[in-house]
């Protein structure tokens, strides 16, 4: 059967295709077409031969099937500890079989692989910390997702998400004009309370270039305003680019390898054009991973680094507090039990565990911060990472996945959770909506704004 109108092996590259696929509500026709999608075994095996390097081959071969990756997997824990949820089983039963059979697999097998890759793994990489051979299942599942995407077996929402990046250079339909107008709007909206507040666009030679998550200008423009307010109070010489402002990568979740590189190239082009001394991004874990950790390698940069030092937001904020650019009013420090969600992507995968706790030391009265158990690089995924939050087909599995984080939070006794990551914030919000455990959740920006001392010269003047 020919490829479907919506479900096919071709990426979405036009606004017309994007809108048509969006109008297939819930992917009803998309998934029906998937049932008839033929596997191009020759192309699949050819892709593996070209792209599977010695590291992945070695990992597949040296797995001792010891099971030490089982208990570290939160999905194994919340799903009755069945063998089918053991990370080594999941990868050997999918990628391992594709390789063993040299790509000669059928539609039903590929749909099983799709369900495994997107509903039984968030690529959180926790299991790799406990593997005696250092096998990184997150990398292996990311590779599997790429093979599946190339054959058209990808969840409807992520086919759309990667298409958004290709069409709009953002994970949502935010045009350059929309973005610039939002920057102007947020500056005007807050200028009475914050005299002199600006969101400079395309300023060359600034000390900081700021990038964000497209969900912010689309749905949470106040987050952009909060970032501007904190830069304003800190006295930063900063800018945002008119092009290359979007730091996230739903294409990384989808396995659209080509688009992953294009996303990073867009941000790096903005850096080359505006020549900032440094860059920083918003409170988003996967955006940082895509642009700063993985991005240099996708771009073929031999030093493995972005064009300029690129900080996660927690690094910039900790620095601003440490250097006294932002000062906290001691009387406004949090005086209730509060806990912290460690993002997999910048804590486990870049080691920023101590930076977040340095920020906590400024914001929380001593004795009120309660660590989750386990915490730091050993913390569990929020339950919504790797695209899991946004896939309707697997919502039931995602809601089950939230239970591990729910138990961790309940064990702390805290009602307030600080979550400096968009996916974590979303998952914890959904956790509360689903299980109603009576918690609140927040990013860092609004907390700091409520608690900081504002220099007199930045206060509104009396009429």
UniProtKB/TrEMBL annotation:
It holds the Pfam family Fer4_8. SUPFAM superfamilies: alpha-helical ferredoxin. The keyword Transport applies. Keywords: 4Fe-4S, Electron transport, Iron, Iron-sulfur, Metal-binding, Transport. Residues 60-135 form the 4Fe-4S ferredoxin-type domain. It comes from the Bacteria. InterPro entries: 4Fe4S_Fe-S-bd, 4Fe4S_Fe_S_CS, Cys_rich_dom, Helical_ferredxn, HmcF. Residues 338-424 form the Cysteine-rich domain. The keyword Transcription regulation does not apply. NCBIfam families: sulf_resp_HmcF. This is Cysteine-rich domain-containing protein. It comes from Pseudodesulfovibrio portus.
């Amino acid at each position: 059967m020919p490829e479907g109108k919506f479900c096919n092996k071709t990426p979405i590259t036009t606004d017309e295709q994007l809108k048509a696929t969006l109008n297939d509500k819930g992917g009803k026709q998309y998934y029906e077409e998937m049932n008839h999608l033929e596997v191009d075994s020759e192309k699949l095996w050819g892709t593996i031969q070209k792209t599977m390097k010695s590291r992945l081959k070695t990992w597949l071969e040296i797995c001792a099937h010891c099971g030490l990756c089982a208990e570290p997997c939160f999905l194994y824990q919340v799903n009755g500890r069945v063998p089918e949820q053991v990370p080594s089983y999941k990868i050997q039963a999918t990628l391992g079989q594709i390789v063993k059979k040299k790509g000669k697999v059928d539609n039903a097998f590929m749909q099983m692989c799709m369900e495994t890759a997107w509903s039984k793994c968030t690529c959180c990489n926790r299991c790799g910390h406990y593997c005696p051979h250092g096998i990184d299942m997150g990398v292996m599942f990311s590779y599997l997702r790429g093979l599946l995407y190339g054959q058209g077996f990808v969840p409807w929402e992520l086919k759309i998400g990667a298409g958004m990046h290709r069409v709009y250079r953002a994970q949502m339909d935010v045009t350059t004009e929309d973005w610039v107008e939002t920057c102007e709007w947020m500056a005007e909206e807050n200028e009475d309370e914050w005299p002199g507040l600006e969101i400079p666009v395309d300023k060359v030679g600034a000390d900081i270039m700021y990038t964000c998550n497209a969900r912010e200008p689309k749905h949470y423009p106040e987050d952009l305003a909060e970032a501007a307010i904190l830069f304003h109070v800190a006295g930063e010489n900063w800018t945002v680019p008119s092009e290359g402002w979007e730091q996230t990568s739903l294409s990384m979740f989808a396995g659209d390898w080509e688009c992953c590189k294009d996303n990073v190239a867009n941000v790096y082009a903005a850096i080359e054009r505006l020549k900032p001394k440094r860059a920083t991004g918003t409170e988003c874990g996967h955006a940082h991973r895509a642009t700063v950790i993985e991005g240099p390698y996708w771009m073929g940069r031999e030093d493995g680094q972005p064009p300029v030092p690129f900080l996660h937001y927690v690094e910039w904020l900790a620095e601003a507090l440490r250097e006294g650019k932002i000062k906290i009013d001691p009387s406004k420090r949090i005086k209730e039990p509060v806990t912290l969600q460690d993002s997999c992507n910048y804590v486990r995968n870049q080691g920023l565990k101590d930076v977040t706790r340095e920020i906590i030391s400024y914001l929380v009265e001593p004795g009120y911060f309660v660590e989750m158990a386990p915490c730091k690089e050993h913390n569990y995924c929020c339950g919504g990472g790797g695209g899991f939050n946004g896939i309707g087909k697997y919502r039931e599995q995602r809601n089950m996945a939230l239970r591990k984080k729910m138990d961790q939070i309940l064990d702390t006794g805290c009602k307030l959770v600080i979550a400096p990551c968009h996916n974590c914030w979303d998952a914890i919000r959904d956790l509360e909506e689903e299980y109603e455990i009576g918690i609140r959740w927040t990013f860092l920006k609004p907390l700091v704004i409520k608690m900081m001392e504002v220099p007199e010269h930045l206060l509104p003047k009396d009429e």
